[in-house]
Input
Amino acid sequence: MTSRNRWFALAGAAVVAVAQVGVQLAGAGPAAAVTGIEKVTSPVSSIDSQQTHTARAECPAGKWVIGGGGWAFAVAAADSAKVALVQLVPEHRTDGTPDSFVVTGTETTATMTGDWWVQAYAICASPSGLSGYQLERSQNSATSSPPELEAVAVCGSRRAIGGGARIVNPGRDVALHMSRASGSGDIFRASAHEDADGYAGNWTVDAYAICVNRPAGYQVVTTPSAESGSESEKIAFAECPSGTRVHGAGAAISHTAPGGVSLQVVYPANALDYVQAFAVENTPVSQDWDFIVSQAICAS
Output
């Protein structure tokens, strides 16, 4: 990992068949500006050499989750390519407990013995500005093939204001390649890929979409990285236009990328003005794996 990105990490720390599952939480109506928006940063997970780490960023009482992101970070530079994100999940609760954004990372090799951690970021807002709020997710059956799977959560006439992705049973062998909205925001996509050695276990990937009636100033900004060859690391930044703020965050690796590369960072900035995405080769990849993209879902 570049020294720039490792410093930024520390600063940040101080298609398969889809069955839609949705919970309607507010009736359809004219879209309003989202109000009370704020970013919540979780504590860093435990810092050790466990195979997986999970962190949860909880929204303040009375606010609903609208988006979020996560960071997987190895303490030693020599281990920087040995961790990956496998879960970026928004959770809306109806039992009186807080909404949250849950992030899980995994080691990508059993030879990883160094300490590492993950951190979660939730973007939260007041329900009064979330007309038509609905959390959609795909629900797919686990399989041992093919080596790459995609899932889609659909908003229909609403727009995705945020979303996420989750790999079920990734082991150390499957990593996220995509967690982002379409250009129009009508769907939210997720994809994951087995590593170059393949994976005998059964696994799948699910997509999550936080859907609302189109807010004022809504637009999806997707920006590619400058790197587009066989670089071992790629970084991209997507900025919201003046007068808008980040409501949801996403990132993706090119669909032409092989196994052995993964997303490590989907980071909405503290000021909610941009989103950073970062991806690495977990094992050396000789072929070009094109650019990655960072995505900011913006609204007034």
